[in-house]
Amino acid sequence: MSKVQKVVIVGGGAGGLELATKLGNRYGSAKPGSQKISVTLVDKNRTHIWKPKLHEVAAGIMDLADQELDYIAQAHWHHFAFRIGELIDINREKQEIRIGPFLDDSGEMVTPERLIPYDTLIIAIGSLTNDFGTPGVAKYAQRLESLADAKRFHLRMINACLRAQSQNAPLSLNQLKVAIIGAGATGVELAAELHRTTRQVISYGMDRVNPDKDMKVILIEAAPRILPALPERVSAAAQTLLVDLGVEVITNAKVEEVFVDKLRLSDGVEIPAELIVWAAGVKAPDFLHEIGGLGVIPISLRWVIALPVLGLKRVMAKGALFHHALKQRINKPLICTLK
Question: What is the value of pTM for the model shown?
Fold first, then answer.
């Protein structure tokens, strides 16, 4: 009997989940004793939601029951294994990864720290928001990197409306103002959706708040136009639609610092805001620099996925990233982030 090749995929985003599903469908349903490849997907969350949809969760327009995918169910349906936990180390000599314990909401341990052996390892963790070292972003700005982030923002938005409805004093300058930093796809879509959903929330009996007078969404972009990666005509049309909705669009504006109730631009202009969202730039997770001797280089492409070349004789990779690694003749382990 030939040895079963163990393929481990770390990261259940769009790339990792699709790869696990396709490999499971092809190899995982083989009869016992004839299986050639076993597929294991590792992720720190129980469920998957497509990252470009997080702005809909933040705005409150998505029914999670229709969009959220349970990893355990997907693994059962498509013949691969799922293990929950966060990658914390890679032992390339022993060909095994170490994943951390998984804790529930109360801090109680559900699964302990574990070792998972592999023959082929694929890192598909994706990217995180890059704040470019801007002071105050990490402490005061909201990011949309996960489902928990999106839910947290939505709750803060609802609480801001409730606070404004219940107080007797006039609204302060920053109240009910949302500043979105970064006018890529996420920032633009969030600005448009917030205009509609905040007015819907106000219509539910919040008669002391005037949405046209009191609420404001401000979209800030450092580039000369919004949606800078798209053709200029698309950017112009999108900006016209946003302005017609009442969104204030500011371009050629670099954010210098973020505070608890405002942000400051590089020209000294200060913009009051109760909610500040940072949606500008992506980078590889910092911890990847510190495990398994992995090097990280940025690639500017459409998708967010990371694939490694771990010095294995057989490397299973996907997409343009692997081809880039070959062209660059990079011999050391490689992780690239794509956007």
Answer: 0.74
